[in-house]
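Hi team,

Below is the intake form for 3-hydroxybutyryl-CoA dehydrogenase from Streptomyces lavenduligriseus. Please confirm the fields before the structure is written into the shared record.

FORM ID: S-0412
PROTEIN: 3-hydroxybutyryl-CoA dehydrogenase
ORGANISM: Streptomyces lavenduligriseus
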Amino acid sequence: MATPLSDTPLSPSSPLRKVAVVGLGTMGTGIAEVLAKAGREVIGIDVGEDQAARALAALDAATARAVRRGRLTDEERAGMLARVRTATDLTAAADADLVIEVAPESYEIKQQILAELDGIVRPGTILATGTNALSVTRLAAGSARPERVLGLHFFNPAPAMKLVEVVSSVLTAPQAVAAVTALAIELGKEPVAVGDRPGFVADGLLFGYLNQAAAMYEAKYASREDIDAAMRLGCGLPMGPLALLDLIGVDTARTVLEAMYAESRDRLHAPAPILGQLSEAGLTGRKAGRGFYTYAAPGSATVVPDALTPAAGDSRAGGRPVRSVGVAGSGTMASGIAEVFAKAGYDVVLAARSEEKAQAAKARIGKSLARSVDKGRLTAEAAAETLGRIVPAGSYDAFAEVDLAVEAVAEDLDVKRQLFAALDKVCKPGAVLATTTSSLPVVACARATSRPQDVIGMHFFNPAPAMKLVEVVRTVLTADDVHATVREVCGRIRKHAVDCGDRAGFIVNALLFPYLNNAVKMVQEHYASLDDIDAAMKLGGGYPMGPFELLDVVGLDVSLAIEKVLHREFREPGLAPAPLLEHLVAAGCLGRKTGRGFREYARR
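The structure came back. Fields below:
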């Protein structure tokens, strides 16, 4: 029977001063750098002498850059380098307090390493696996002392990324968890304690989203450039999903997803076939020089044009002239869109169900422009000119001469259909009719008119003056010159247009809301806390907001409605809204607007 960890010399307060890192690829080298910077003695172990030499060279270069940038002194750099030595045999870890293995994602390889370490290290040495896809429990079970085995999942690049997931199995001793958690804090990281399941928190949420993006591209729903731009500009992400897959490695992503699917049997985790095709062809992303994109050389971050790169010139059919724009609605989105068009020099008719509502919407725009003046983003003269281009109206009859009519009314199909039927009667022949819907079928709005070829989707994001993205949604009936018109208009109002077809969620919501739903399921299953999940996605994924922060901002009722639409259209069981979300909405806990959602907020 294995000796309990509590009977060994290690205690939670014991410093882990000497650390062995097994596997000196990019991640292992980065972890070694972090440890050495924090004053730890590091033994880097790799079976290949060349790889060990490359790791030392990379560490030398990284510390030299840090000195040039003023982040290290020459003396600190010399100390760091002196604390690192390399070896090609696991016996070098004999007197280590902690061993972190960062070997390839293979049970066979990792179990062999842990089994060998059992006969080499002291009884109190903690053995940590850096896996992000394999079962820590299964790895621990193969060890002679499973209570000292845990997961320690750093994120790439390890020196820059703050998140570390500390992964316990049912066999892990609490003292081991406490010791590595304390170490992570000393390394300047933010540790999050999680249980053992494929992907843990950050990758468990991230890879499902990446998989859906790959499937969306494979289905030719949108181009790789448009998918990536939509998620960067629509969600504030540092990278688009396909570019991120190339950075992570397409083969790595496939391995993680296979592990997730093996446990969940959720088809959303079943790797998109294109991931297998690219992997089998050796097109594994940046490291191979080609994946979803083509790169200047293997390992390069520079994307170079290939056969799929859009031509520099726009060869689309010419659009219709647009001089005046009608905006229907009186809410935040309508006033924001009217402001955007007026700033770009268009004459704008802002129509609502009453003159009072239209005037109130114009007043809201005036306040928005005044804030821009106060912040130095706009001159007082430009603000006055912009506001002067907006004419409020209490009837849609005022749209008789507009060239483009944009509706931004309630997200209710019956309401939108009635409005489009009215616009059909009021607007002149040749006027383009656009809906800002985020979840309803654009073609249903088009069929409410006698000219469905003139109808298109223009999905702005809130707040419209600040958000750069517009999803341009064609139906099967939309005319080419209508599509061209809207693309040209997007350029004039300085928005980035992405093309997509008329299906639920378009690009952004179709990828964003399943991710949010999966986060709710994690809490519902008591796998992790709200705070840990939010921290994991901000620190490990570079998200500007955690999923629960975002859900409370968007509104739980709005989120639930979008998830229901996605589930109804795609009929994937994994898209069914989490019961916890439904319960909160039923209880009137809708987020910030009601003072309570997943969290409570102070009443204003």
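SUMMARY LINE: The first strand starts at residue 18 and ends at 22.

Thanks, M.
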